[in-house]
């Protein structure tokens, strides 16, 4: 089937390095654009031959997605260079092209793609996921209000605690003040009362009884203790 379909392929050579024409072009046969990339050339040849990608994938045992990536020129979706070159060579030879020339052209195209800078542009945020500006403002105001309420509560608690402390007396405050003068009119000084002493009775020295013919001489008279006021006098003997 492949040989019969290849008889209908007609390739126009527009460049010296383009793949060879496997068949002579007929008058009414379709023509492949050889100025197109390798993948498009292989896709046009496949369509002219009457194959589908699933037919080629089943015959060559190459995944359908890889063949589609080759035809679409999506080099970034292909595996490593060694595997990609092997797939391109097998696909080209299956369609009747010169595998070496097709691979050489595929390498030049891949090198040109790799040299292009990979520009990453910012993706706009969908309208549905964008937070409205009013909501952000309300959240900011709410956070500010909570912060102010916490500060006011703490400062009020400190003021209440200071009000509960009693003020120092004036004399203690004067002691703390180094420049304060001492009080000029101190209060009366109260002397401690002397304890009441008991009766101080001085015992008279005993005198010897006078002998016969001796006169009694009176000694010095020592006044006895005066009884305090309000104390009854002792009865005389």
UniProtKB/TrEMBL annotation:
<keyword id="KW-1133">Transmembrane helix</keyword>
<dbReference type="GO" id="GO:0003677">
    <property type="term" value="F:DNA binding"/>
</dbReference>
<feature type="region of interest" description="Disordered">
    <location>
        <begin position="1"/>
        <end position="27"/>
    </location>
</feature>
<feature type="compositionally biased region" description="Basic and acidic residues">
    <location>
        <begin position="14"/>
        <end position="23"/>
    </location>
</feature>
<feature type="compositionally biased region" description="Low complexity">
    <location>
        <begin position="203"/>
        <end position="221"/>
    </location>
</feature>
<dbReference type="InterPro" id="IPR010982">
    <property type="entry name" value="Lambda_DNA-bd_dom_sf"/>
</dbReference>
<dbReference type="Pfam" id="PF13413">
    <property type="entry name" value="HTH_25"/>
</dbReference>
<feature type="compositionally biased region" description="Low complexity">
    <location>
        <begin position="227"/>
        <end position="237"/>
    </location>
</feature>
<feature type="compositionally biased region" description="Basic residues">
    <location>
        <begin position="1"/>
        <end position="10"/>
    </location>
</feature>
<protein>
    <recommendedName>
        <fullName>HTH cro/C1-type domain-containing protein</fullName>
    </recommendedName>
</protein>
<feature type="region of interest" description="Disordered">
    <location>
        <begin position="182"/>
        <end position="237"/>
    </location>
</feature>
<dbReference type="InterPro" id="IPR050400">
    <property type="entry name" value="Bact_Cytoskel_RodZ"/>
</dbReference>
<keyword id="KW-0812">Transmembrane</keyword>
<keyword id="KW-0472">Membrane</keyword>
<feature type="transmembrane region" description="Helical">
    <location>
        <begin position="135"/>
        <end position="154"/>
    </location>
</feature>
């Amino acid at each position: 089937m492949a040989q019969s379909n290849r008889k209908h392929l007609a390739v126009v050579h527009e460049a010296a390095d383009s793949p060879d024409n496997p068949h002579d072009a007929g008058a009414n046969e379709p023509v492949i654009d050889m100025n197109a990339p390798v993948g498009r050339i292989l896709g046009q040849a496949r369509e002219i031959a009457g194959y589908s990608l699933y037919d080629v994938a089943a015959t060559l045992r190459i995944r359908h997605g890889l063949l589609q990536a080759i035809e679409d020129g999506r080099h970034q979706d292909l595996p490593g260079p060694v595997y990609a070159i092997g797939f391109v060579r097998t696909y080209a030879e299956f369609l009747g092209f010169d595998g070496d020339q097709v691979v050489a052209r595929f390498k030049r195209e891949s090198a040109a793609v790799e040299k292009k800078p990979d520009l990453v542009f910012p993706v706009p945020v969908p309208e549905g996921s964008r937070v409205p500006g009013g909501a952000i403002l309300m959240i900011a105001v709410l956070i500010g209000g909570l912060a102010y309420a916490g500060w006011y509560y703490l400062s009020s608690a400190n003021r209440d605690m200071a009000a509960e402390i009693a003020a120092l007396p004036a004399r203690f405050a004067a002691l703390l003040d180094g420049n304060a003068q001492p009080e000029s009119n101190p209060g009366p000084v109260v002397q401690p009362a002397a304890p009441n002493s008991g009766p101080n009775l001085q015992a008279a020295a005993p005198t010897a009884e006078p002998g016969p013919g001796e006169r009694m001489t009176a000694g010095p008279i020592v006044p006895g203790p005066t009884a305090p006021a309000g104390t009854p006098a002792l009865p005389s003997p």
